[in-house]
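Now for a chain:

_____
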Amino acid sequence: MARSSADPEGVTRSGTVGIRRSHRFLSGLKTAERVVFVSHVQPDPDSLGSMLGLAHLVEQKLGKPTLITRDGLISRAENRAMVKVLNLHLTKVEDVDWRPGDAVVMVDSQPNTGRHTLPEDAPLYAVIDHHDTPGDLDNVPFTDIRASHGATCTVVTKYLREQDCDIPEKLATALLYGIETEMAGFPREANPADDDALIFLYPLADKDQIAQIRNARLPHSHFECLLQALQSSFIYDNLIISWVDDLPQPEQAAEVVDFMIRFDQVDWAVCGGVYKDQLILSVRAAMADARSGDILRQVVGKLGKAGGHDRRAGGSIRLTSTAPSAVDELQAELRRRFLKALKIDDTRGRRLVPLREMLQNLQS
């Protein structure tokens, strides 16, 4: 089975018009007995919506059973709300009863990038993604990687439209929210295809459910984590770095930088936090052409795994020791690397909230 080599408009590398990728995707699944959908660890709305959309496509056009999985925790409040409000049925990857004839479709991620725990011998048929994170795609029969797109849900919406599939309200809501969350930052990481998908899905989606998901109730741990991040935040020129000694959930590092990047004196926000035996890293940038994914990969190097988009990135480093001294040493090295990568003088940072003022606030 040949790998897909067409561009987003269906033109092959030789310049001739090729078969639509959605046709090729479905064609390669005709002999499968079941299609299992997987994504990256801590799946987000884009990956959840993408898996739901492709499962609907396979069921509608091929009549085959499907299975949507969850790799790791879903801890961010909005993401948990999405699963609950839309009543999504997810199977833990480790609980999948693998069968002969299974075909695996990976969405919003790529093999061997350190962002999933899929068994090495899983029968991987397809990878559909919008990240430019380099993955091991050599032995994957079908690939569709569109780094120019803001969301994988945009690609999936195009597949559904190409195949003239009906899109029920629940699915439209999931796809719309998945695209919205990927383009929520400023400047937006989107192209005309993303906007076209939003316009198409909007009248089909349940806006009340989206509002309910957006305004999910926050647990006490969210505020404890944010307070610790504020107390530990230092500013270096146009960069703010926050450290959290004990992350309640891995996704809360992203919640911290989503908040910090709105500070009007910085263009970069970084959060590092310890979750179990890993240091979780999250990065946000406030300008276009920031190459956040490349920057974080450069900083992390061989210490761990990293990747992302132009203005958003994430990564992790497995800790050999969680002793405070070992974590402090790693944080110091990462800070030095960030300053070097962003060409900022390696000088002492200044606190976001002065210690004296912070103590007075705590006592008041």
User: Anything to note?
Assistant: The first helix runs from residue 21 to 27. The CA atoms of residues 232 and 242 lie 6 Å apart.
